[in-house]
Write a structure and sequence with these properties.
About 65% of the residues lie in helices and about 10% in strands. By secondary structure, it is an alpha/beta fold. It has a 7-stranded mixed beta sheet with strand order 1-7-6-2-5-3-4, sandwiched between helices.
């Protein structure tokens, strides 16, 4: 457990460097025993994300093969993970889970936070896999040692585009729930264990997306994009980032449930909106626009103001372009190596390998570049180059993102001139769809 103390630092560096992170909902108790349960769609990124959201050190259960993995075994052991022996890996070792359970019980009795993914697998499915009873049984056993029940906290880990660098990632935390009525019955009572598993699943479903089919995802995302385009400015002024994230997840969940109902013949009030959303999205794709870009109208005065405001960007643009060239080799190598490894282990491991391999490749590249600079310009310049490169890399990334937004604004400006009537019609249509969505969300909220 030599790295256990550093888990928050390691997790924040890994997760926040790859994603734009938002944490919303309740707060995890800062001390004392707590069992954290979360969905599992992003391999080893998920434990790191749980630590970020919990804002405290956490001990995790991890499948036993990870402990002998050449790339990450040292990390899994170093942070104090507890091995879980699965029959699918080695049936002869399943009996060793008794020791694992005792380790978890002892950790919770000592006041630690323990994280577990009750689905039992990391997967790319569109909804929660059936939950195993392990989390409930561990809680029951630990509760007997502690002498009373303790908080169980569910987390929903929702990724806007899981594999895309700097995409949005949200962690939504439920209020801790108690289960003292079940603890008195003991873990030998199978009905009590099943009931606690059911409560855990209910809590997890309240903060995760559960698509009936992956084909529904584009429509769910389209509904959210239209909402944000039309009402996002109002939300930004009225809500904190955490409140906005929680509201977003709730809208996604409601839309997901509505589409599931449509597939089974219900949810008739959503049918017309779904049809209009599909048609609207198809038209925007033809024009190469997003709902937000359609909403944003770049006029001549705004274009001039935008141009003046981008003068500093023009000054640092050469630095960004040079950075893009300098850091292309490690970026390319990291992506290729990670994608090759993920091809063998499953698509849910792509980001895990990118982060882990990047953590090795980029420092080595920084050192190589610094060595070259030091060779020609002296040791001082070499050391300075090594220290400045991480900041240069992130600055190049930031300027690159601004550059993409700039080109999009220029394109909208000229498109506005050539397609004025069509865009006005689409804007009106999008506003009408957004109002329909607002009415439907309000209807669900009021239970009407």
């Amino acid at each position: 457990m030599w790295l256990h103390w550093a888990m928050p630092l390691i997790s924040n560096l890994g997760v926040r460097s790859y994603y734009r992170v938002t944490v919303a909902g309740a707060r995890v108790p800062a001390e004392g025993p707590v069992l954290l349960v979360a969905n599992h769609n992003n391999s080893l990124v998920d434990p790191a994300f749980v630590v970020v959201a919990a804002d405290r050190t956490v001990r995790f259960l991890a499948k036993s093969p990870l402990f002998s993995d050449r790339l990450i075994g040292w990390l899994v052991k170093g942070v104090g993970s507890v091995p879980v022996y699965r029959a699918v890996d080695d049936p002869s070792k399943v009996v060793q889970n008794l020791d694992s359970f005792r380790d978890v019980h002892a950790a919770l009795a000592a006041g630690d936070a323990v994280g577990i993914f009750p689905e039992g697998i990391s997967h790319s499915a569109s909804q929660l896999a059936p939950l195993k009873t392990g989390a409930a049984r561990m809680a029951m056993g630990a509760g007997r040692l502690v002498g009373h029940d303790f908080p169980i906290v569910a987390m929903g880990l929702v990724f806007r585009d899981r594999d895309t660098f700097r995409s949005e990632a949200h962690a939504i935390i439920t209020e801790p729930f108690r289960w003292d009525d079940l603890l008195v019955r003991g873990q030998e009572d199978r009905d009590a264990v099943r009931e606690l598993t059911r409560r855990i699943e209910a809590a997890m479903r309240s903060v995760t997306l559960n698509l009936a089919q992956w084909e529904d995802e584009p429509l769910v995302r389209a509904a959210e994009a239209v909402w944000v385009a039309e009402f996002g400015d109002v939300e930004r002024h009225a809500q904190s980032s955490a409140e906005r994230a929680a509201a977003q997840i709730e809208r996604l969940r409601v839309t997901t449930d509505a589409l599931a109902a449509l597939r089974t013949g219900g949810g008739a009030e959503w049918r017309e909106t779904a049809v209009e959303l599909r048609a609207h999205g198809k038209m925007l794709r033809r024009l190469g626009l997003t709902p937000g870009e359609l909403k944003s109208d770049v006029r001549v005065g705004e274009a001039i103001e935008w141009t003046v405001g981008r003068i500093p960007l023009a000054v640092v643009l050469p630095v960004s372009l040079v950075g893009a060239v300098v850091f292309f080799p490690p970026k390319w190598l990291t992506a290729r190596a990670a994608d090759r490894m993920a091809a063998h282990e499953g698509p849910d491991t792509t980001v895990t390998h990118r982060v882990l391999i990047g953590a090795i490749v980029f420092p080595l590249w920084f050192a190589a570049v610094a060595a070259v600079v030091g060779w020609f310009a002296g040791a001082g310049w070499g050391i300075a180059t090594f220290l400045l490169q991480p900041f240069w890399a992130f600055a190049a990334l930031a300027v690159g993102e601004r550059r993409q937004h700039a080109w999009a604004a220029v394109r909208r400006f000229f498109l506005r001139r050539s397609e004025r009537p069509r865009l006005e019609e689409l804007r009106a249509r999008q506003r009408a769809i957004a109002e329909q969505l607002r009415a439907l969300y309000a209807q669900v909220a009021t239970g009407a």
